[in-house]
User: Fold this.
Amino acid sequence: MTYKIEMRNITKRFGNLTANDQVNLQVKKGEIHAILGENGAGKSTLMSILFGLIPADEGDIFIDGKQVHIKTPNDANRLGIGMVHQHFKLVEAFRVIDNIILGVEDVNKGLLSYQEARTKINELIKLYGLNVELDALIRDISVGQQQRVEILKMLYRDSEILIFDEPTAVLTPQEIKELIAIMKGFSREGKTIILITHKLNEIKQVADRCTVLRRGKMIDTVNVIDVSINEMADMMVGREVLFDVSKAPQAVGESILKVHNLTVKSPEQTFVKNVSFEVFSGEILGLAGIDGNGQTELIQAITGLRPFQEGTLTFKGIDVTNMSIREKYELGFAHIPEDRQRYGLILDFDLQSNLVLQNFYMEKFQSKFMLKFDRIREHSEKLINRFDIRSEKGPSTIVRNMSGGNQQKAILAREIQKPHHLLIAVQPTRGLDVGAIENIHKQLIDERQKGKAVLMVSLDIDEIMDVSDRILVMHEGEIVANVLAKDANINELGLYMLGEKREANNDGAHS
Amino acid sequence: MERIRNILKKCLAFILGKSKSILVTIKPSLIAICMGLIAGIIMMLIFNPSETLSGLRNLLIGVIYRNNQLNLRGILTTLHHSTTIILTGIAVVFAFRTGLFNIGASGQMMMGAYVTVHVGVLWSLPAPFHWIVGIFLGVVAGTIYGLIPGILKAMRNVNEVVTSIMLNWIAASLLVYLVNRNVLNPFTQGGSQNIQPTAIIPRLFSNYQLTIGFLIAIAMGILAHFLLYRTTLGFQLRASGFNVDGSKYAGMNTKRNIILSMGISGAFAGLAGALLFSNYGKTLSTEVHVFMEGFEGISVALLGLGEPIGAIIAGIFLSYIKQGGFYMQPAFRPEISDMIIGVIIYFTAISLALQLALKKYSGKIKTFIKRKHLTTREEDEQ
Amino acid sequence: MKKFWLFLVLFVATFTLVACGDDDPLDEDPTNFKIAMVTDVGDIDDKSFNQGTWEGIEAYGDANDKEYAYFRPSSVSTADYIETIDLAIAEGYRIIVTPGFLFEEAIHDVQFRHPGVYFILIDGAPHSGDFTPDIASNTLSIFFNEHESGWLAGYAAVMDGYESLGYLGGMAVPAVVRFGVGFVAGAYYAAYELELDTFDFETRNYAYLGGFSPSDEHKNTALAMYNRGVEVIHAAAGGAGNSVMLAAEELDDKWVIGVDIDQRDESTRVITSALKGLGIAVQTALDDIYEQEFEGGRSLTLGASEDAVGIPTGTNAFDRMNTFDIDDYDRIYNMLGGKVLNVPKTPQELVRYIDALGYSVTTGLEAKAQGS
Ligand SMILES: Nc1ncnc2c1ncn2[C@@H]1O[C@H](COP(=O)(O)OP(=O)(O)OP(=O)(O)O)[C@@H](O)[C@H]1O
Ligand SMILES: [Mg+2]
Assistant:
């Protein structure tokens, strides 16, 4: 039979690193084909080759059995291939409709003509239930909606082959459910879908077949029906993965961070309303909630990235309300930020520099204002090994060239190893593979065993339930629940998150 | 061929202190220079075809070799003139590496120049101290003048490009006011007085213009490189340059970094002015104008690929081409040789900018070019 | 990649090949001496000072079949002037003409090092930095009585019926100061001859622009002056004079008096120009050199007695004047040339001069003329 897409013996090298090594991929028409692999396995690279973003060193591509040469994304578009990238590529200051038609605009007497475009897009929206406001600016809409714009962009170009690179990493559970339904709709229409994801249960839910990559090599292509989640994980990581998080009991100690009556506002909006809570040593406090309910602003206020209007912060009995970010780090804050590319890393620096981003000036790495590069390198090599950060050139790799998951690991490594009492981890496992997630969860629990306080923010309610000792739920800028994880159940948490239920008189302290 | 290439590679690697990919790195600059020269040759063919060959010879090697002998004076004068633009180039590079565009190098240079002249004319100090103090205070003046746009940017988020352009003109007028008031030459009234002999920076060889200022400029290039890439300060400044949010997250004081960076950049520009005006027979004019050397620093920075060491090489190159234009006289009149070297410099800069842009948008441009090609091939296959 | 290196090597090789060739040997026969002009900041088409000198050289060279060229330094400093003069000499030029006092120190340096080369320095005298002239025997320094030229222009303007005059100098350098001083003095003298009861050259209508290049700012300065009633401005400002002419052209009945060379072709509003016989002076000196009659080691000051200053007198020269004509001009010119009249040269002398004519001096005029 002829496949809709066939990639034969694709090889791609970056210097000494072989990102794709003789990879074969065969995708049937109308199927949902998942690609599974560890961080840095070469998934994004393979798809970038198919989409014409980077050239392959070796190998051939066939579409409908005919050999094609895809040199640029425009070539791909012409062949009916569309892609939603791991990090979106939208023009923030443009309207939704402008972003959709960008590059294939109708021009009438030198003016853009929107009429036909609007009709066509509205039809697509109706057909697939992709509701978005066409005249809103990209920067004003949520991440989930931005993703819909990316999808509409593909559909508008009449793409028959749709590539999704980790589409669910940034979505809320509700949005994920909707996306899955949409993808199924596409497949019914006869469109061919390639889906990259680290979430095995999603693969189980939507995919027909699944190709597994490990360290650049193709391991196998399997029918999803025939394998269990555990088997898939094994294939991908090459060892058994434990999904259960096992926690030894740990006594809760002194109060590490005390947030008192914190309010965060902008001239237009109040993000956080008079919030108070405490984090204690030896506990993992999970902060749950639907995206956009003030979690981001709350954490930014605590860490110092955003000014706040009212309230006090106390750290181990010291008033840190007006302290600078560096002073907080020196006292023992560690922070895994939500947006890794914007805050967590200097993408154009090399890995070793990024690993000392907050403490390069300390005795250990500096003498007389000169950086001690040998020490920095030594330090980074240690972390690279311990956290299995994979990259082309090790310590000297420019971080921009690292895979998304490995960038995340670099931040985690840096934050966890540095001396601290409090670890604030926002979406710590976003974009990580199951093996890495397992490792991170272990590290977080380790922290707790060592008597550190951990404040974890996650949109993934399973992660919250598995890892936390205690759970706070945020809704519209307020903390509406404070429950022990062992007493919590998913349905009840869901109601709190939706704002349909709230604990009376909750002061955020230990219950 | 292979051997020559290897030797060349090693030399460059030695100069630039990196290995392997050096030639790849400077390839855009080399291509740019070739493009510039070709444009220059076309100009020469237009203006004086019969003298094109001799003009070209003088332009390219007149600085080194003239009238059948080594032109030592040409070489040393070229190096001498490169001093100023190397330093303004470093000033622009330094700011650029930290995410700022210092278009105000001219103004900072003017302030440095004035203070040096002021000290040189009005103060009385014994020899080495006099010029050292003059230059030092010139650097201080440049620094202060550079701090102004830095502070405005850090505190009020005013774009440094806008402020420094305005500050250039303020400096130009202020300079004339100060010269008229303090150091006007009473005999000519057309400029400042000569600085005292004790304030003149020593020459390296008594009969040639080249001073130790050139060595200082080279040292500054190395210092800037060192500062940027080896020190904790450079680490922070560069981090802020690449990603302000990221540096803020990392606990760096990004406001302080902006101010510092503009101050240091201003110091380099101030030094450029200070060194230039501690030369024998160099006086400040009372005509209101902005020094061009500050803008030439932008070309130098671009051609030097935004690296301090690159600025040294690019500065010498530009100075070499200009001096070559000087030696095209009298076959090519100054206006014409000016135009030719102007064309070379602009072509070089444009070609370089184009290449860098091409790299960024290569995909799009390639598509544009190949669109036709591809469609025909697809049709063939069908 | 390979292709690129090949290209680069070929490129370099081509240029290296070009690098062979010879220069002419120096020519020792005096009649074949080549003439070089070296400029300072400006170009030779500055519409005044440099251009006047250059046109004199051009005319002489063409008429007498001499080779001539012009050089410009690569930057503005005494050291670079010296280097440029040395370049011209190395290129075989044996006569060096340099207009402008900026060359004083440079000529002082080269005149001793190149005794076989002739130097003509206009508007300056060589010195070692102390402003005490030290002129070698191969050097001729030429000054002009610009004040006489200005005087004649000012006299002509007032005699022609204008009563409100203005003066715009480029910068307060000595020659430009003298033009202004003479202009004001000539105006007062005409008023005195016309027996006007009052005559005022207002201090605010006397200014220096601060530069010799055209700019909108200068034009605005001129516009402002015209708008407060000034009818004629004497612009002694090189290329900046063109900005003054543009201002005059925008208004009705506003006029300009040019400087250095006859500027009537620059604008229809130029009624006359205060000339400086640059071309004649240079040509005379060149003639002396080729005739082996050169008398160096001295400083010449050329004025009305030498026929080296004045206003244009050729055909149509007076057609933009109301009544003033060649006869009026000749009468007064002879008085100047014959030293019957004496013209003030400095602002201090100007003040005394006005006083002696029986008019009151507007306050601040002396300081203004001085440029402070
Ligand atoms: N432009 C590049 N230059 C150098 N190395 C690169 C570049 N892009 C990717 N790599 C390397 O290739 C490998 C594969 O990267 P890729 O982005 O394809 O991984 P991935 O499977 O998508 O991982 P993740 O799940 O973390 O997104 C990584 O080790 C990465 O460091
Ligand atoms: Mg990826």
User: Anything to note?
Assistant: The two ends of chain C are 64 Å apart (CA to CA).
